Amino acid sequence: MPRGEAAAGPRINRGAITASIMLATFMQGVDTTIANVALPHMQGSFSCAQDQIAWVVTSYIVAAAIMTPLTGWLAGRFGIKYVFLISVIGFTATSALCGAATSLAELVIYRLLQGLCGAALVPLSQSVLLHINPPEQHARAMAIWGMGVVLGPIIGPALGGWLTDDYSWRWVFYINLVPGILAAAGIMVFIHDTRHGQREPFDFFGFTTLSLAVGAVQMLLDRGELKDWFGSTEIWIEAIIATLCFYLFVVHTVTADGRSFLNRALLKDANCVGGTLLMFLIGVPLYGSMTLLPTMMQALMNYPVITAGFVTAPRGVGTMIAMFLVARLVGRFDIRLLLLFGLAVTAVSMWQMSGFSLLMGMGPLITTGLLQGFGLGFVFTPLSVVTFSTLPRQVFTQGTAIFSLMRNIGGSVGISIVEALLVQNTQIVHSRLVQGLRPENPLMQAPYLAPPYSLATPSGVAALNAEVTRQAQMIGYIDDFHLMMIVILVCVPFLLLLRQPKRGAPGPAVALE
User: Which domain holds residue 32?
Assistant: First the structure.
């Protein structure tokens, strides 16, 4: 088929293809957080302990982490359309099974299968958008893709809270059925078969060692806080497995005579390496703040879950505004300057968040969320464009899979660090604050210490301890916001690893006909 005809198909169907794949991407993004708010209801439904119900989240995360690196090989072997279609159908079917689960064991198994099916949705959607759009439209395509990836997890908690409160926790899974069916129909009709130009032999050793390393890291991060980190034998075993398997994977990748599971072309591309490292670091504040804010509002400020979800919504609005703007600025300005601006705005928002207090209203939460979303939007799209701007077309899909994997691992690392520090700093600050709560302290006497606080009655001591704990937790949250601001600033030197894409450089050939 002549080149002009090959390119004509995607040009005609580009809007329908984009709508179909972004529906699947948004559905997967929502599902990463929508189930979290329903966990207490699931726990009551199945009469299980907290560490047992946590497997509903852990099984999904670990399965998705293990499956994500395999996306590139599967797409090269069987074609993007069929891998994408099977993933969407499988994700939708397992969502229905999760909603119909009659026991905790069933729910964990179905969530594991859901993670296996959903792992390919984000990297394949990014790869498809890069393939069907010419280079000059990559910024706009990545802006659309970024909105689906970022907005999904932001909307998830509010949607999950509403469905759980007004209906049942089962609807956090049933809600995937309609968009899943529509996305599958769109992919089946509008995405045609792909050329199988990259049928590489499967590197079983490379895949096994990488999967074990990633799975062990995810287990360590997810269960570390519950198991008291390295005070637990389980965490030590997971750390040893992760270290040993990652070492074996690196040695195998470097020394393998044939093709390794991780294509070496990815490691030779400076933009791909630098962009992937940056994505890992940005995942820390992206998911860390997304996790901290709802719990802070509900635990310390007594916001209902739905209200907390709506207060965090402006972050998504800021992201949308930024992505609409940045799509028009990429190509007119040095892409590294756009990234620097986005990082600076995000750092400023984190600095403002470090000034939060228990006496504030919704205003600071809304304005800082809007600013943070705007800054991250200015980071996400340019970073996605520059990471793949110089990458050979034949490794696009594997590159997007590793990009998504590093974002998720960065998010897992960030969530684990901020949650662990929150607990630790709360305990430290609490112990320091109670040192001054002594009967001989004049400030602990009336009229300075008003009811219900008192050191003379058990109820007064309990009320006083609760308030001290609340103040200590607020300081713990502030310390976490400081840390995430530092992480953003650490990202700045990594911009030196990136190279400005050449204008008018030939883009990847269209792979979807």
Answer: 3-202+261-426+473-497
